[in-house]
Write a structure and sequence with these properties.
By secondary structure, this protein is of the alpha/beta class. Helix content is 36%, strand content 19%. Strands 1-2-3-5-8-9-10-11 form an eight-stranded parallel barrel, surrounded by six helices. The chain is globular and about 50 Å long. The protein contains nine helices and eleven strands. It starts with a strand and ends in an 8-residue tail after the last helix.
Length: 277
């Protein structure tokens, strides 16, 4: 299992300098990824920051960590613009980007701007948008006539460094989300609640992975990431999640868990260390 951090960029952590400082500290302490939330936090009455602007700053401040979103609600973004944004970030970072994608779980982020918040429609838009984004990253002329999006002979440039595409990890707990994840490169699970308690036990993860396996063909690499809260590098829960197939633990950093200084201290403490010789 590999280890990263997932920063909730709301409230005090909407401050860009704090996110960059956490990312630098994470890389220095041995964490292998920095993921960010993608929400419009007016729905909670607090500030929020754009994750793609922040990830560009993090890309410049680090050299090694993977960079991604957990997760971007594609129905809230234009697929062609997002494809270009992610490709540019992959170029900037030297090929370190992961696109975490979902349908969006907060209807107010859509309805407040005159968009439909219907869950089924958002799921359909997500599927259509993923096809557009992935096709554009191939570098060929794309013509697409989907239910929600149309592309008329467009070739994207520049392309991502990663080939054949930037990895796509799909977020969500539902069986529909699991079926969707099986078509792409990974499954991203919210494993904890606002109070820092784990709400996704290893047994539920194992059941979801069994369903995903039933929808996958061949042996292509497939990542399974969970956000969670640990007491420190020696927390015994890491082993329980690794045993059921989790490949990434993303330590969840948010203001309701602890003040910024305590979150920074947890980052400095680092992930589990491999056993010595």
């Amino acid at each position: 299992m590999r280890y990263g951090v997932d920063i909730c960029t709301l409230g005090d952590l909407a401050e860009p300098a704090r996110v960059v400082d956490l990312a630098r500290a994470a890389e220095d302490a041995g964490w292998e990824a920095v993921f960010l939330w993608d929400h419009l936090a007016f729905a909670w009455g607090v500030p929020s920051a754009d994750p793609w602007v922040l990830l560009a700053a993090v890309a410049q401040a680090t050299t090694r960590v993977r960079l991604g979103t957990a997760v971007t609600p594609l129905p809230r973004r234009r697929p062609a613009v997002l494809a270009s944004t992610v490709a540019t970030l992959d170029q900037l970072s030297g090929g370190r980007v992961v696109l975490g994608a979902g349908a969006g779980g907060v209807p107010d982020e859509f309805t407040a701007f005159g968009e439909r918040g219907d869950g089924r429609e958002r799921a359909a838009r997500l599927d259509d948008a993923l096809e557009v984004v992935a096709a554009l990253w191939e570098g060929r002329p794309v013509s697409h006539a989907g239910e929600h999006y149309t592309v008329d002979g467009v070739t994207l440039a520049p392309l991502p460094i990663q080939r054949p595409r930037v990895p796509i990890w799909v977020g969500g707990h539902s069986r529909a989300a699991q079926r969707r994840a099986a078509r792409w490169d990974g499954w991203l699970i919210a494993g904890d609640d606002e109070q820092g308690a784990m709400t996704m036990p290893p047994e539920r993860v194992a059941a979801g992975l069994a369903r995903i396996a039933g929808h996958r063909d061949g042996g292509a690499p497939f990542e399974v990431a969970i956000t969670g809260v640990s007491a420190g590098p020696d927390d015994e829960r890491f082993g329980r999640y690794e045993a059921v197939g989790i490949t990434w633990w993303l330590e969840h950093l948010h203001g309701r868990r602890a003040p910024y200084e305590q979150l920074l201290a947890r980052v400095h403490a680092g992930p589990p260390r491999p056993p010595g010789p």
